[in-house]
Amino acid sequence: MGLNSVSGMRSMDLAKNVTGTEKNEGVTRGTSFAAILNGEHQKCPYGHMAKNNMIEYNGVTFMCDYDTNSICLGDMSDPKKVLNISLPSGGNLKVNVDSIGGLSKAAGMFSPADLNAIMRAISQYNHFTSKLNEMDAKEAETVENLAADSDKAQDPANKKDVL
Questions:
Q1: pTM exceeds cut of 0.90
Q2: How many other C-beta atoms are found inside a 10 Å radius of the C-beta of residue 47?
C-alpha cells in the first residue's frame, strides 16, 4: 500500500458505496439519527397478534406501547400499581396488580420462557406484598402495645404511694 492509496483514503466519502455512487434509500446526508429511527417499524412484544395497537386473546385485551416496547394489561395511570416484567423473548409486559387474574386466561399466548418469567415476577410480588403486610401488622401491634402501656402508667389506680 503506497502513499497515494493512503492519501486517497482520507478523501473517502462514507456516504458512497463501492461503485462510487451515493446511497439513496430515502435518507439524505445530514439527517438526524432520530429522524431515521422514526421511519423504522415500531415494535412491541407479540406485535404480530396486534390489530389497532390491541392484542385480544381469550377475552383478555393487551395494549401495545411502542414507546417502551411493551404490552400492557390494565390501568397504567398509577405506576406504583404496575408490575414491569422483562420478557426473555424481548420487550416488557406491564401488568396492573389489580389485573393479574386476567393473565391466567392469556397464559397460552406466551412462550414458555416468557410464561416462566411472568410466573416468577408474580411470585416475587406476592412474597414482597405478604412481607410488607406482615411488617405493617407488627408495627400496628407495637403502637397498640405502647399506647396500652402509656395508659397503664397514667392510670391513678396503678400508682402506688411511695413514702
A1: no
A2: 16
